[in-house]
Amino acid sequence: MISFYPGPSRIHDEIPEYVMDAAREGILSANHRSEAFVQLSRKTIGLLHQKLKVPKGYTIFFTSSATECWEIIAQSVTKGKSYHLYNGAFGQKWFDYTQRLRPAEAIPFDLEDVLDPSTLSNVDDDDLICITQNETSNGTQVSNAVVRKMRKHFPDTLIAVDATSSMGGIRLEITAADIWFASVQKCFGLPAGLGLLICSPRAIAKANDIGEKAHYNSLTFMIEMMNKWQTSFTPNVMAIYLLMRVLEDSDHIDKVHRKVSVRYELWLRFLAKRKAIRHLVDKNSVRSFTVLPITATPEVIQQIKTAAVKKGLLLGEGYGNWKSKTFRIANFPALKKKEIKKLMKFLEKY
Ligand SMILES: *Cc1c(COP(=O)(O)O)cnc(C)c1O
Asked: How many alpha carbons fall within 13 Å on the CB side of residue 318?
């Protein structure tokens, strides 16, 4: 079965081999305070900086998931209120989690809308602006240019960005925001169970200023531990090892970005020629590069899903409001050209 699910998604072919290597190298029982772990952690973080173009001054942390990052951000870096701009299920979920912990305000926008910083007023320096860069549920994205615009509009307010289904697949302008996070089961092509949190010097300073220490994953503890390349809990050492191996093999993000965007264009051209199916989003500038939402009548959707499974093709289910009218196709780097061709051939008659 070829998985086009936008997470958990198709893993790199080499993963089973790397797991065997991890066992042989004693990684699977490595102590997380050992020198071996410190070396592994340091190397992996170095590779993330290098391959994803994460500026030197930004600190990278290991977490267990993107969901955990939502919670860390709410508890440890938000002094005032948190403003959530979203147009889909993941952005809303982030808001829902946050408001249980802290004062938060939802600012939803429409599927076809380009996020506009001027819709936000009364934002204070102590507040936090939360953006879902790639909305996995409906295949829309907030471009680097818009994140930059937000930064310009609010130069003194921390900006946090959920890039769970785009980091590792497209070029993100890390300097345009203070906090970025993702988990590895989407664009990184790895099994689930590891999250990444990236913080600017300002975000670190804010966390230290707030000094929140009530949780095992309070950012203040994580900062202390990461100064020694360690974590505040026993991390998923195998996943970190797999990430290191995959990053060693990976191209620089500029090259990966080109590959992903060429394939994205190919999909757009393909979809434009179809009769029964089309891209859910009309406006080009808000379409995600990494998740393609396809819409049709519920009958056609059902027919395609059933037939796809028989061909060994796993499509992503529609999400939330769009459940019966859409399916989703991942455009993640681990997918092979011939697999995409196979899916296109299958969809050709619709
Ligand atoms: C998948 C996803 C999450 C949740 O990731 P977990 O690793 O399951 O916590 C959060 N945000 C977005 C945009 C996602 O696509």
From this structure: 19
Nearest to 31 by CA among 231, 225, 199, 184: 231
74-88 per-position pLDDT tens digit? 999 999 999 999 999
CA distance 114 to 97: 25
What pLDDT does 119 receive? 86
- Confirm or reject: Cβ of 183 under 6 Å from ligand 1: yes
Pick from 63, 132, 164 the residue to mutate for probing ligand 1's pocket: most ligand atoms within 8 Å of its CB.
Answer: 164
pLDDT in tens, 149-202: 999 999 999 999 999 999 999 999 999 999 999 999 999 999 999 999 999 999
φ, ψ for residue 328, nearest 5 deg: -125, 145
Tokens standing for residue 13: 């072919």
Q: Would you say 261 and 144 are in contact if contact means Cβ atoms under 8 Å apart?
A: no
Which residue's alpha carbon is nearest to atom 2 within ligand 1? 164
Look over the chain and give the mean of its residue pLDDT values, rounded to a whole number: 97
* Residue with tokens 């500038």, as numbered in its chain: 285
Residue 136 near ligand 1, beta carbon < 6 Å: yes
How many Cα neighbours within 13 Å face the side chain of 288? 32
Report the length, in residues, of the chain: 350
DSSP strand E in 81-156: where? 82-86, 104-108, 128-132, 134-135, 140-141
CA distance 84 to 87: 10
Give the separation between CA 67 and CA 72, rounded to whole angstroms. Answer: 9
Domains, the chain, in order of start with CATH, read 2-8+252-347 (3.90.1150.10), 15-249 (3.40.640.10)
What's the average model confidence in pLDDT over 233-246?
Answer: 97
Main-chain phi, psi angles of 311, to 5 degrees? -90, 0
Q: How many angstroms separate the CA atoms of 110 and 140, rounded? A: 10
- Distance CA(300)–CA(76), nearest Å, equals 46
Residue 165 Cβ contacting ligand 1 at under 6 Å: yes
Q: What is the pLDDT of residues 117-152, one digit of tens each?
A: 988 988 999 999 999 999 999 999 999 999 999 999
Alpha carbons 184 and 192: distance in angstroms, whole number:
6
- Say yes or no to pLDDT of 321 above 90: no
